[in-house]
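Question: what's this shape?

___
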Amino acid sequence: MPEPHHLFLRACLNLPTERTPVWIMRQAGRYLPEYMSIRQQAGDFLNLCKNPELATQVTLQPIDRFGLDAAILFSDILVVPEAMGMGLSFGSGEGPLLEPPIRNRSDLERLHPFDPEQELDYVMETIRTIRKRLDDRVPLIGFSGSPWTLATYMVEGGSSKNFSRIKGMMYDQPELLNGLLNRLVEAVTRYLNAQIRHGVQAVQIFDTWGGVLGHREFLEFSLANMQKIVAGLDKTGPDGLPVPVILFAKGCGAHLEAMAASGCHVVGLDWTTDIGEARQRVQGRVALQGNLDPAVLYASPERIRQEAARVLTAYGPHPGLIFNLGHGIAPDCHPEKVASLVQAVQGFQHESRHP
């Protein structure tokens, strides 16, 4: 199989790179004034996600502004439950609302399989448009939420602080929860494969809420289902190049070895795990992505440079690192702080680099 030339894709595959590539979760978002202008034009967040032209514009904004090494598709993880038949809205200041929530067997039976080429055709058109506008400057990352994370929103009916309903279901009605998770495994696998067919060059599975689970429960209800998705993904794109798979599970550094054994190419780390120790733990089985604390972006440019260098030095002059934050950029972050971070990472050189 031919090797990719883009730094990001090479790093995902543990291939040598002349420097460490960098992209940032939520790199297209509310901290950018140009994003807010487009969002106002769209009317609301969901309309923005469903407008391929506007979604393409906001996807490209951080690439044009900062010169990042990868773009990520602008969309939302909750388009999947909406495509399965749930009502989706974003209340002002309230976060997402999914109705009616999944609480019993009849609620589960209301969900239906979907064809991503039909119900999510706007996502596929956005991917095609982004790839055309990028003109191979940088690769495009597609994504989905993990089955567990999607299920939390579907059972709780939106965001949650204590996840009482889905955890109650997990302990008292595991067969009902597994029925939902099995449907989501199938849906997410189809969705990501459709994204790959239409041109994304890597995919990331976001397990935002994996960290709320206990050790056994994470392995059973979250990781096992992500592993099924990884096994079902097309690992080669239409261009004949490999399509790396990234698993990011917030708060799950204790499960690093199990995630590395899932079949993925890259494990994303939040900021609570030392990246140098993580590299020793995975022993080259996967590349690593991360893992600067997003709060560092509230600091001075000089401190941002120091903290970026600390992460890069801790990893060492080895292949297989994609620099990122340990989670997404906060909406009140100043864009110039992001510029300082990107410049620091792209300008950093170890004393020696070896394959």
Q: What stands out?
A: The chain is about 45% helix and 10% strand.
